[in-house]
Every structure is written in C-alpha cells, then in structure tokens.
Write a structure and sequence with these properties.
It is built from 19 helices and six strands. By secondary structure, the protein is mainly alpha-helical.
C-alpha cells in the first residue's frame, strides 16, 4: 500500500552535511529561478544581453553553451572546407578573423553571427550568464529547437561566402546531449514566445535589432510570475498571470497610480524572502509516492487530491512530524504543531516560515539583489521619493507592438489585451502616452467620421 509521506531519509541526505549540521541547500530535485547567491556570479549585463542570447542560440543549434576558442573554430571550419589553393584558404581564414573581431566586440551585422558572441571574460560571472541561458532555453525553447534554426540563418539574404560559413558551422555540433533542469511552468507564455519569435523572424533586420529586447522581456515576465505564483502555494495558476503595471520611462509616477503598488514595490516585497521557497520545495518534493522532479506546491496538491483525502491528511501529518522531529532538533527553530484543522496550505506555509527563520540575513539580501539587477538594468525608472518604478522605453514598446500585431492591423482596445497576455499591464494615463507615441510614429489609424474603432498598424 502506497504511503503518502515525506521521505525523511532522502531529505536527510539533502539537508544535512556529514557532521549532521543542517544546510539551507537548493537545486537538488527542484529548480526555481536562475539567481546566484554569490555576488561575483551575478550577471552584470555590461554589454547588454548579447552573451545570454548567444548562448541560447548555440543550444538551438545543438552546440555547447561555452563556445570554442577562435582558433579551434577556425581550424574546424578550415578542415571542413575544400580549397583550390593555399592562398584561397588564407584569404578565407582572414575573412573569418575579421568577422570574429567584430563579434568579440558584440558588433554583429547578421543573425548567424550571434552564436559566436562569447560569454563574459569573468569565470565567476559566466556562471550567472549560463544560468540565465539554461533558464530561458529550458522554459521557452526546449523541444522546439528544430523549428527555430532557420530563424537565425537568413540564408536567402546572404552572399555565397557567408552561406558557406553557415553550412560549415552546422557540422560543429556538441557531442553531449542537452538535459533541461528548469521546468516549463507557463505553457501559454512559451507558446506566446514561440509565436512572437516566428513573427519577428519575418524581418531579419528588425529581429537582429530586437532579439535581445524580446528575450529580456520573457526572462523578466517568467521570473516575476514564478515568484508571484509560487508565493500563492497551492493556488498557483499558470493561466492567470498576476498583473504588473508599467509606465513609459518619460512619465512621472505617483503613489496613487497602479504602477506604484503593483509594480516594482510588489515584486520587491514578494522576492524578498523567496529563497525560503528554493529550499522548501526541495524538501516537500522528496516523497514516498513519486520520484518526479520539479514539483511545486500546486503539483503536490494535485497528486494528493487524485489520491484522496486520506492521502492528503497523511502527507500533512508527515510534514509536521518532520518539522518537529528533525528540523527543530537540528536547527533549534520553534515550529508549528499538527492538529486536525491544518490544511495542506497551512503545512506548506508553516514549513516555509520555519525555513525562513533559519536563513541568514546575508543570504536573504544577496538573492533578491540578483533579481533586482535585471530590473535596474532594463526596466528601472527613478521615481524620486517613490523609489524605483517599472517602466518601458520606446524601443521596448515598439517591440511589444510589433509582436502583438500578426496581421495588417489590430483594434487599439485589443492591443492592451495582447500586452497583458505578455505580462504587461497599463493604467489609463500610460495608455494615453502609448497612443500619443504610436500616433507620432504614424502607426495609428485615426478614427473615421462614423466613429469606428481606432486601429494600430503592423510594424513588421
């Protein structure tokens, strides 16, 4: 008969060191966010997002995340090619070197060059970049790579020499099979991203100029929604995004506007103690009834509901038994006790509180700073006494409009719905600013005399 309990033995191997001391570890069977706990490993984005975009592109082409050195790449390409003379080979190598020099400076003029952009020179910072690469690839692209390779080639627009380079490059695949570590929690967001990327690929110049903006956007929305939904424990709802309000970066903020309370302030409050969930989910997922990885609170809830009320009660009791007999004994932290009124959400909440009480202040502060680094680099507006506000630049707005309109035009009222599907909410004042901007750029069709709806024209 199946028991529906925590697996104490598996938890002990994970949470206790060789001397029996309790450790606040993470990333054993469950992965949440690509955020480092050490400052040197934090991605600085000093050259924008190119390093992460390049790593994702390499994975799409089934190559290693860390690129080969120039000499290794050149040698492989030269060995793959057939040359009628040494002079031809030397000329080809010179051409490769000139292209490589531009790429090393993150100066790319063609989509196929992106994959050759290197990671940061700092070995420590590379760890942070690789984590972002894996997170985005696992959650948005894994399983769809074959469909995306053509987006990054634009062979029809290239000269013969560059097409030869693409052809030779295709042979330099990794010998290792890639295994994802992060779960896809938001299937609709993934589908939306794939649709947006496909639409973007219709214009290679626009795609080259905006691919980083698109990936940054989805990184931010995925991380934000993971935080906001995970904090809801068993009420996690992948199909109903939590609203986050943005303003345009030239607007003035105000404390009465949605953007103040339901923007950066909300995220900062929610991510502040989020490492507790990083550890707690690696505890509650170690059970006697499943070996599945990356189970969140709502996933456990669903499995227990399928098993019946007695299974859920058994599991709840085991959580409190572990808290009182193991966690308190090893940490000295006082915990809640079981009674028959306790529900599954209570058990999860009490466990998270206990874990939080055992975390050091240094760990609690370093973890959210890595999340804030993304906001401060790409979405920050200084709101004076209001502090940091979430904002969009004109370039980010144009990208969102471009991917939102798949046909010739769309009704203005429907544009706001498209934004919300992509995790962006705006109040009336910001919508008015967007309308002014689109009108100025001639993307807005005026209302007719008969009072028909306004339309926004396609950008691509």
């Amino acid at each position: 008969m199946t028991k529906y309990e925590l697996d104490f033995e598996a938890i002990e191997k994970f949470a206790l060191d060789k001397k029996g001391k309790y450790r606040n570890e993470r990333r054993d069977i469950t992965y949440l966010l690509p955020l480092p706990t050490r400052e040197p490993e934090r991605a600085k984005f000093e050259r924008g997002f190119w390093s992460i975009t390049a790593g994702i592109t390499r994975l799409i082409f089934k190559k290693d995340i860390i690129p080969q050195s120039n000499e290794e790449t050149f040698e492989a390409l030269l060995q793959s090619g057939k040359f009628d003379s040494d002079a031809t080979m030397k000329l080809f190598k010179y051409y490769l070197q000139e292209q490589s020099n531009d790429v090393q400076r993150h100066q790319v003029s063609q989509l196929f060059q992106i994959e050759n952009i290197p990671l940061s020179e700092s070995k420590a910072e590379q760890k942070g970049e690789i984590d972002y690469i894996k997170f985005l690839f696992d959650t948005l692209i894994y399983g769809s790579s074959n469909e995306l390779t053509s987006y990054f080639k634009n062979e029809n627009e290239l000269d013969l020499l560059n097409n030869i380079i693409i052809s030779l490059n295709q042979e330099l695949v990794s010998s290792k099979e890639y295994t994802p570590i992060y779960p896809n929690l938001f299937k609709e967001i993934k589908n939306q991203f794939l649709e947006d990327l496909k639409h973007l690929s219709k214009n290679s110049v626009f795609m080259l100029e905006n691919i980083n903006i698109l990936l940054v956007h989805y990184l931010f929305i995925l991380m934000s929604q993971t935080v906001l939904q995970t904090k809801k424990l068993t009420d996690f709802n992948e199909n109903k995004l939590v609203p986050l309000f943005f303003i345009m970066n030239w607007e003035n903020g105000a404390s009465w506007r949605n953007n103040y309370k339901e923007g950066f302030k909300l995220l900062r409050e929610q991510v502040n103690d989020f490492y507790s969930h990083e550890h707690a989910l690696n505890i509650i997922g170690k059970t006697t009834f499943t070996t599945e990885r990356n189970l969140y609170y709502h996933n456990i809830h669903q499995k227990l509901q399928q098993a019946g009320p007695e299974a859920e009660r058994q599991y709840i009791e085991s959580v409190y038994k572990w808290l009182n007999e193991v966690f308190t004994e090893k940490t000295g932290i006082a915990v809640e006790h079981y009674d028959e009124t306790k529900q599954l959400n209570d058990a999860f909440s009490d466990l998270v509180k206990a874990v939080s009480a055992n975390l050091g202040n240094e760990l609690k502060s370093r973890y959210p700073k890595a999340f804030e680094a993304v906001i401060l680099k790409f979405y920050r507006k200084h709101g004076g006494s209001l502090g940091t506000l979430l904002s969009l630049s004109q370039e980010q707005l144009i990208l969102l409009v471009a991917v939102s309109i798949k046909d010739e035009r769309i009704e203005l009222n429907l544009l706001w719905k498209e934004f919300e599907k992509r995790g962006i909410w705006m109040d009336y004042q910001t919508k008015e600013e967007v309308i002014k901007t689109l009108d100025k750029l001639n993307y807005l069709e005026k209302k007719s005399d008969s009072g028909d709806a306004q339309y926004v024209k396609s950008i691509l």
